[in-house]
């Protein structure tokens, strides 16, 4: 792709994290993924300084939920996605699970 002078370029982390040339089965949430890490926390000099805290919170939340509800299953295979308040991110409106 050729980018012209003065054109606006926006890097989308969520898009990069789903690059099929980089990740196996990129749309699948796999917390044991071993294909090299994501760029969710950016990289370089301005990478996220809250990375350890964010990872710890996720480990606690996901760990407690899966221990408490070991048979939890998705009700909707494709939950609704909605834009978030931030311009370049999005998330699920709700994820319904049976426990
Ligand atoms: C899942 C949770 C989080 C994600 C996905 C995330 C993601 C990111 C990303 C992508 C950047 C780089 C932004 C840029 O280059 O413009 C960033 C920067 C930053 N994050 Fe986070 N973050 C998270 C949680 C946190 C937490 C918990 C803290 C603080 C306790 C935090 C503090 C910061 C700060 C201060 C920066 C700016 C670093 C700099 O510019 O040098 N983040 N984060």
Indicate the percent of residues in helices. 10-25%
Helical/strand content category: alpha+beta
Judging from the principal axes of the Cα atoms, what is the shape? globular
- Strand residue percentage: 5-15%
Bound molecules: protoporphyrin IX containing FE
Q: What is the radius of gyration?
A: 17 Å
Largest sheet descriptor: 2 strands, antiparallel
Give the strand tally. Answer: 4
Number of helical stretches of at least 4 residues: 2
Strand order within the widest beta sheet: 1-4
Question: How would you portray this structure in words?
Answer:
With 99 residues, this protein is of the alpha+beta class. It has one domain. The chain is built from 2 helices and 4 strands, in the order ααββββ. The chain has helices at 13-16, 51-68, and strands spanning 73-74, 81-83, 90-92, 97-98. A two-stranded antiparallel sheet has the order 1-4. β2 (81-83) and β3 (90-92) form a beta hairpin. The chain starts with 12 loop residues before the first helix and ends with a strand.
């Amino acid at each position: 792709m050729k980018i012209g002078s003065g054109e606006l370029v926006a890097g989308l982390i969520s898009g990069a994290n789903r690059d099929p040339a980089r990740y196996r089965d990129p749309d699948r949430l796999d917390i044991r993924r071993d294909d090299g890490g994501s760029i969710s926390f950016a990289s370089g000099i301005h990478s996220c300084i809250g990375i350890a805290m964010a990872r710890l919170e996720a480990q606690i939340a996901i760990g407690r939920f899966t221990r408490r509800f070991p048979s939890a299953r998705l009700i909707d295979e494709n939950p609704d996605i909605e834009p978030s308040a931030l311009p370049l991110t999005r998330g699920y409106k709700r994820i319904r699970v049976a426990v």
